[in-house]
Specification:
Number of helices: 8
Strand order of the largest sheet: 4-3-2-5-6-8-7-1-9
CATH superfamily: Vaccinia Virus protein VP39
Helix content: 25-40%
Largest sheet: 9 strands, mixed
Order of helices and strands: EHEHEHHEHEHEHEEHEEEEE
Number of strands: 13
CATH class: Alpha Beta
Bound molecules: S-adenosylmethionine
Radius of gyration: 17 Å
Shape: globular
CATH architecture: 3-Layer(aba) Sandwich
Distance between the termini: 20 Å
Length: 241
Amino acid sequence: MLLVPVTRADLVAYLPQGLNMAEIGVAKGGFSRVLLEKCAPARLYMIDPWEHQDVEHLAEDSNNPDQTAQNERFDQVSHEFSPELKTGQVVLLRAYSHLAAEQIEDRSLDAVYVDGDHSFDAVLRDLNAFAPKLRPGGLILGHDYTNHAVVEFGVIAAVNTFVQERDYKFLAITTLDAFPTYAIAPALEGAAKTFAHTALAGVPGVVELANYPAGYSFSPKYIHKASGGTAFIPSFSTAST
Ligand SMILES: C[S@@+](CC[C@H](N)C(=O)[O-])C[C@H]1O[C@@H](n2cnc3c(N)ncnc32)[C@H](O)[C@@H]1O
């Protein structure tokens, strides 16, 4: 696994252009715009129910606003992306991710960005629902490979469980964002191989952590900087320590 000193916006620029992509969890479309600008995908499925969820683990989540705000977000995204919707480059799927997956053909996607419900069960469900959608050489990326003081984050445990159960390759995490993005793939071939071995391995300051996640525990640290603000330190220990 590569520890890559870039932000997620810079990370996705290392993907090949013209891919078929999906983003799970769109909110106001901020990162969808980045994907369109940096990756020029042939197709981007933007998946979000834009529905307030009355569940305990999302009660304090600012991305789970009331239904009026969710409707406003959907209207704003529909308006902002109307040029791409008209050309068919963008497809909006207003649905929960595991149901949206039923509308996407198996082996039709090159890259999926997972950023919906961050609980352990939901992330694992997203990974399992979208793995069959990948073409050979495809890869899965996702946001917030970390812990959170307020909202229940099961991203680290879910991704590691999935990687180990399905024998995926852990390609990379970003280290310049306070909330890292991860990249994993079923095999080191095609776009996934070019992305990890050619593009990312050449980034100045990249570090490899071999065989991750086997034998490691990842405990992200956040420290208060003397100059103000918070710094993120990716901290790993061997599982036995
Ligand atoms: C963190 S926000 C997404 C932010 C966006 N990816 C970005 O970076 O600009 C999470 C979004 O996931 C959506 N969401 C929650 N549960 C979901 C599910 N089961 N399937 C798809 N989206 C979901 C929420 O409605 C919310 O808009």
